[in-house]
Amino acid sequence: MRNVLKAPEGERLALMGNEAIARGLVEAGVSVVTGYPGTPSSEVLMTLHEFGAGGDIYVEWAVNERVAFEIAYGASIGGARAAVTMKAPGASVALDPLISSAYGGVEGGLMVLVADDPGPHTTQTEQDDRWLGFLAKLPVLSPSSPQEAKDLTVASFELSEAVKLPVILRTTTRVNHAVGDVVLGPLRPPKRVVLFRKDVPRFVRAGMAWNLERHRWLNRQLSTVEEVFEKVSAVRNTAEGSGKACVVTEGAAYNYVAEAVSELGAEVKIVKLALLFPPPRRFLSEVLEDCERVLVVEELDPYVETLVRSLLSELGRGVPVYGKTASGMALEGELNTRIVREAIASALLGSAAARRSATAEPSRSIGVPPRPPPMCPGCPHRNTYVALLLGMARAGYGRDEVPVFGDIGCYALGAQPPLEAIWTEHSMGASISMAMGLKVAGYDKPVVAVIGDSTFFHAGIQPLIEVAHKQIDVLVVIVDNSVVAMTGHQSTPAWPELESGRKARPMSIESVVKAIGVDRVEVVDPYDLDEAIEAFARLLREPGVRVLISRHPCALMEARVKGVPYRYRVIEDRCVGCLACVRVTGCPALYFDGQRVRIAEEDCLGCGLCARFCPYKAIEVIRSG
Fold it and tell me: Among 530, 559, 588, where does a domain finish?
């Protein structure tokens, strides 16, 4: 496979948006890249790891997004070029230091990749991080294709160093995961630390008079951003086409607009923004000068619509502006060409065009039945939940008596049938805090918090300290599969060697938990179901702060490393089609042919849970291969 990080200038490659961003980081001469895994942003660091950038660049996952940002910021104030990557909720984790960084500014360029997820496809919220520009007072750039993603990555460093501020590159899933032709630019060596000078008024936020002056400095810097951006960026704010009917758009939505206008064959001016904050006021005032009707096409919030309405109002132009409230485009979910075509026809082109659009041939779609995301075959979390539920029964409790607070990760899929084990999934680390909240509010039965190993390191340590310090009766279950599995098998602090090849000191969850001072710590292997059931039953009966570490490697990762020595199959003349194995486990390797259960042997990873619950002993183990 072609090394996208070392291919020569001028070569054209088909790249995913995240791969293009990784290439852009190398073209920009970045020396430090860090982040926390989260779809749709993960492949940026994964690409850097895969193609060996770690030899010249520090490329490592951090324990969470706040720490990742602060590592990158520490590098940038010393003159190095640095980048940090995260998905949308991760921006909330990093928000405190992100806002403070605007006051201190940078010396080396600093790019903050924030990947939003309209849809949503893999994210608990559809938050719109374009608003971060207004909140943090930092420039925000928006690409609409993999080529622009690479080019704006490079431009973000030039802009950052020119205005001495971190720059946010805000993407969405359809840009991060789209694949397109990308023409490569020149490579440059990493820009490392030059000198870090002591400057207390600049970098110490404890002085209120200093903060006031730095805020004035920040506002002055922002006033120069539009002019500087036009000088340093190969990707510009642009206008294409002509006419009195105008569409203002940005990001992935631009692609729908371009397709819709082409399908309509209409005379429409398309205004595409690459700089979202500060608003490019001069550009917009010039390019909208001759527009008689304006439609704003964007996903999620009416961010650009708000900018356009405000600007036209200030300029005294009585131009009708159509957006979310008047176009039929929802505040939730993704757009598509059909939605945009109908909005353009209705808002800008009149009733005849609207009728033509409405009767146009609809896009063909495949009728795929809905299916909730399942845990993988052999997933140890499935065993953990089965053991927890059976342990509740053994301890004398009903399933509706013991609240189970969940957390962010693969194990959140335990909310789906047939397990339906967890009651909540809120935010990283919240399982422990929320369990404590219910308990201190007077709940008189056991309360369980389930959290993954990576999530525990990310945001679970502090709430466990709170529970232990206040001596609250909570059972914390740490499901340890030895990897950040849901986002593509990234390293955790327990790894002795990282993806880059760097040797690390592995962090022991048991040692951390014991140092916090909980009352009891136990470790079980959920593949040993009887032991796990007994441990749950015993700990549910006990008072105090209890931690049960349910440890078994991710089945997919283990299969890739060790292979699959054993699989299972159904003995046809014994299976009566009772579906007990399916109803208990929900394993996707099991399927029903109308008469009996079958096992897709190529999917089976040999955990044996289905055989455990077959009342007719109709499932047997076989040696793989």
Answer: 559
